[in-house]
Design a protein that fits this description.
There is one protein chain. With 363 residues, the protein is of the alpha/beta class. It has 12 helices and 15 strands. A 6-stranded mixed sheet has the order 6-7-8-3-9-10, with helices on both faces. The protein has a 5-stranded antiparallel sheet with strand order 11-12-13-15-14, covered by helices on one side. The protein has a 4-stranded antiparallel sheet with strand order 2-1-4-5, with helices on one face. Strand 12 (297-304) and strand 13 form a beta hairpin. Helix 3 crosses helix 4 (110-123). The longest helix is centred in the last third of the chain and has 18 residues, at 271-288. The chain is elongated.
């Protein structure tokens, strides 16, 4: 359905896309993943000529998109795009947002359009919001309206440019559920996303982009479980982390907990795991508190997206601050809590730092 040959895009001296070639069949769901700044969104915007490619070719159902004779507007009606921002018209109701483009471009009777728009709003779970204005909706609801507005044009392909990146983590799942339903119905979709679990679940193929090219592509099982190339392996197994320096026995535990909560929100960790980590951090800091008179303590919380494991790492150069090396005394309730919560505890030395690492499984 879509064929891309040696696509290139430069902005001044910056080569964003260098040599992108791909074929996408009707009904496929392609997730595009990779580090920030590697051309994922630019690739999407070039497909429907929101960005004019510097070189290469794009064919949609055999039509050359870069041929001056091609009616690009007509092709765009078949290949709609959902952006990071919702781009709804704030002065129009939800229903009016859905019917505006079809009214202008398809000349369909208004009553017919409104009936179809209501059906689409029900499809995305927002039938009761038809006469609301965008400012009355949550972020997740606005993005679902944006998807319904896209569907109102009867597209054959939908391009999603990080559709959940502007959302509160609590609203992500409602938008991803709508996209999953579209995938089940056979809609052809190309999705730029940082939601790795979603990409694994919904995709027929995954493109990993790096350095302006499709560095590796394949079915989700290959990309996520057995990547063939080094940069893909590094990216898939990458670790996200939060780090703080605790320099005084009078540290602000409430501020630290607030920072950790923001880290949890970013990675959508469930309430049970949050509670375990916060309790562990509190108990660990109590154990290490005496050593803070001698040297500061570095606390690092690491999260592996694919392994779903959380590692809590504490390091200090304080000579007497290795309380977890010793066997827990029967009456040491705090240390018993730590050992019961953790899968394993490993200790060692890195440079001049004494290091304790604790592992938890959030699966």
């Amino acid at each position: 359905m879509i064929r891309v040959e040696h696509l290139a895009k430069t902005f001044g001296s910056l080569n964003v896309l260098r040599d992108v070639s791909a074929e996408i069949a009707r009904g496929e769901v392609i997730s595009v993943i990779g580090p920030s700044g590697t051309g994922k969104s630019t690739f999407l915007r070039c497909l429907n000529l929101l960005e004019q490619p510097t070189g290469g070719a794009i064919f949609v159902d055999g039509k050359d998109m870069l041929d001056p004779a091609t009616d690009v507007t007509r092709v765009r009606q078949r290949m709609n795009m959902v952006f990071q921002g919702f781009n709804l018209f704030s002065h129009l109701t939800v229903l009016e947002n859905l019917t505006l483009a079809p009214t202008r471009l398809k000349r369909i009777p208004r009553a017919e359009l409104e009936a179809k728009a209501l059906e689409l709003l029900r499809l995305v779970g927002l039938g009761e919001k038809a006469h609301s204005f965008p400012d009355e909706l949550s972020g997740g609801q606005k993005q679902r309206v944006a998807i319904a507005r896209c569907l109102a044009m009867d597209p054959e392909v939908i391009l999603f440019d990080e559709p959940t990146s502007a959302l509160d983590p609590t609203m992500v799942s409602e938008v991803l559920s709508v996209i999953r339903n579209l995938a089940r119905e056979g809609m052809t979709m190309i999705i730029v996303t940082h939601e790795m679990d979603f990409a694994r679940d919904v995709s027929s193929r995954v493109f990993y982009m790096d350095e302006g090219v499709i560095y590796e592509q394949g079915p989700p099982a290959q990309i996520f479980d057995n990547p063939q190339r080094e940069k893909t392996r590094v990216f898939i197994n990458r670790v996200r982390s939060y780090q703080a320096e605790v320099v005084s026995p009078d540290f602000d535990l409430y501020h630290l907990n607030g920072e950790l909560e923001r880290f949890f929100d970013k990675h959508a960790l469930d309430a049970m795991m949050r509670g375990r980590v916060l309790l562990l951090v509190e108990e660990l800091l109590q154990q290490y508190k005496p050593g803070l008179h001698q040297a500061p303590l570095t606390l690092r919380v690491e999260f592996g997206e694919q392994s779903r494991r959380i590692s809590i790492v504490l390091s200090t150069s304080a000579a007497a601050a290795r309380p977890l090396d010793a066997e827990a005394a029967a009456e040491d309730f705090s240390l018993a809590i730590i050992r019961n919560l953790c899968e394993s505890i490993a200790s060692g030395v890195e440079g001049d730092q004494q290091v304790i690492r604790l592992l938890l499984n959030s699966a």
